[in-house]
Design brief:
The chain has helices spanning 29-32, 39-55, 57-63, 67-78, 80-104, 115-128, 182-192, 233-253; strands at 7-10, 13-16, 26-28, 130-141, 146-156, 162-170, 196-198, 204-206, 212-219, 222-227. By secondary structure, the protein is α+β, with helices and mostly antiparallel strands. Strands 1, 2, 3, 4, 5, 6, 7, 8, 9 and 10 form a ten-stranded mixed β-sheet that branches.
Length: 282
């Protein structure tokens, strides 16, 4: 997804601001979710490094001959998960832009690398019978204090015509097309509980009241729509609201969580080092 108009990047992640809410900053949905543990990412990163190492084995052997080249190789290999992540993020952004162009009926050149994903998206639109209400729309919940940009709101004929918030996820074929992660459900719960819709010019409208939420997974050779379990929606939103609170508390306490340190002095490890003042001339 391209950077939304009302978003701003900070050292604490992405936030949103609307002048109708004064100087208040709203944490983004994705930034709030970073407080969650994501154990699957650890395994993915380790496997990515291992795969990159095996692919570059001759280079690794050559690099091991000196400390300088060895350290440089290690730095490159360590960075491989981030490079792969960024490539996937760029692919996702391109697919989202192609989706928005299609929804708005705008001409849009499709890069050959993402063409298979766009083909699957168009097939999903046709098969599911989607009628679009909004795309790439920024929504906000002032009561909880967050905002986010959703991919699609559409009526879905295959879901009994329910107005649905749909989040598009692109991925390779290393996992089944119906693979989802818990944070997807939390993300969708957050987006559907936003009463405000923000236009790029700061105008605030009432957000559509959606009936369902779903993930649309796109793969080069297939797609799957995975609806969120409606019974769990309230619990998912409670978890997300807790994430927002935790993120705020972390930001508030990070600079002064500890008091002044006590350093050993003389025979006692618990006496602070004295500050020696200059003598005042008589």
């Amino acid at each position: 997804m391209a950077k939304p108009k009302l978003a701003l990047q900070t050292d604490r992640g992405r936030f949103y601001r609307n002048r109708n809410h004064g100087d208040r900053k709203f944490i983004s949905v994705t930034t709030a979710l970073k407080v969650l543990d994501k154990p699957a990412l650890v395994g993915w990163a380790a496997r990515t490094v291992a795969e990159e190492f095996m692919a570059a084995l001759p280079t690794a052997v050559k690099a091991s001959r000196s400390k300088e080249t060895r350290e440089a190789f290690i730095r490159d290999i360590k960075g491989s998960p981030y490079a792969k992540r960024d490539k996937a993020a760029n692919r996702g952004t391109d697919v989202h832009e192609a989706a928005e162009a299609h929804i708005l009926g705008k001409p849009h050149a499709v890069d050959p690398e993402i063409e298979p994903f766009v083909k699957q998206l168009l097939d999903a639109i046709d098969t599911l019978g989607l009628t679009f209400e909004a795309s790439e729309a920024t929504v906000a919940n002032p009561e909880i204090g967050y905002a986010g940009t959703l991919d699609i709101i559409a009526t879905v004929k295959k879901l009994d015509g329910a107005l649905t918030t749909i989040d598009i996820k692109t991925g390779d074929e290393s996992k089944p097309v119906a693979t989802v992660y818990p944070e997807y459900g939390l993300q969708l719960a957050a987006l559907r509980h936003c009463p405000e819709l923000w236009l790029p010019d700061h105008t605030i409208l009432e957000a559509p009241t959606v009936e369902r939420a779903a993930v649309l997974n796109l793969r080069p050779n297939g797609w799957a729509l995975i609806p969120v379990n409606e019974v769990r929606q309230a619990q998912a939103f409670r978890i997300f609201a807790a994430c927002v609170e935790i993120a705020a508390l972390q930001a508030e306490t990070k600079d002064d969580l500890f008091e002044q340190e006590l350093l050993p002095a003389g025979d006692s490890p618990f006496v602070p080092q004295p500050t020696i003042a200059e003598e005042v001339p008589a």
